[in-house]
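Aim 2 progress. For PP2C family protein-serine/threonine phosphatase, the working sequence is reproduced below.
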Amino acid sequence: MMDLQKQYQELLEKYLENLDEKNLYFAQQFSRKFIEQEIAPEDVVSLHKDAVMNIFPELRNEVATTHDFLIEMMIHYGLALREHQSLIKKREELHMEMEVAANVQEKLMNATRPNVDGLDIGYVSEAAKAMSGDYIYFAEHGRKNLSVAVADVIGKGIPAALCMSMIKFGMDSIDENESVPSEVLKIINRIVEKSVDNSMFISMYYGMYNVENQHFTYASAGHEPALFYCAKTKSFEQLDAKGLLLGVKREVEYEECQVHLHSGDFVAIMTDGVTEIRTEDGFLDSAIIEQLLFEVRDQSAQQMADYLFKQLAQLQNFRLHDDFTVAIMKKR
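Predicted structure tokens for this construct:
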């Protein structure tokens, strides 16, 4: 500290002699030593005070008192600054951890679009924040059946993402013989009821398409109804089924329903990030979703999903308020 005091006083004396930019530059470079040695702001002021009093010993005592006043201010400023820097460092560390977690989640949860005879499939799943609380899942059961699941955790961020990871591993563990929609929901419900905190709620829509008879069988655990479009009548119908949210209680019965798909028909399964979009004017009318899908009914399932996302995101000024997931299965 004594060496710093001496060097600082020499720099100050040289500057006072010439008042030139060169000595100011040297002072700026010298300030790095304060950072390297972690000198507190109040100690820097104290160095300056001692240097001034040594250079101008005849100064009035009031001048020294003003320095003491500044030192006291800098003590509190220094404490606040260090706390602020600590918070910034923690935030940066958390941001890095979130990025790593989001990348891991993307790899774990990434859905692969299946190729099924006579069925066109498209989907979009976009997170409102770094990590998603939505989940979309496809599974082929031989050449006869395709299952699709769309789930939504009521919440966002890391807790929701962890719940979705657990749901995925539960889905992956289900035997092909247990893949009937109502039975699948019973199994996942028992996993959630046993493993998830009571404050977390999860909805899920599970459907299975049979290639041979073109039947789409579905069940719901408190999820948004899917939309069914009938090409013959050019009309929409909600595909809803009774069933509690996952994890509310251990033993639950889930209603199972069925619809037949003809050429041009499609089923759109969505989360509430699609159906409950908020704009500046309030919540969006659900009829808008039907209208948008109707406009592109002759396009591929993926083009329909992309169009729906683009149009609804635009209505929100491209700032999602909730995770957005839609899966579309269209009969060729």
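The radius of gyration is 32 Å. This observation will guide construct design in the next reporting period.
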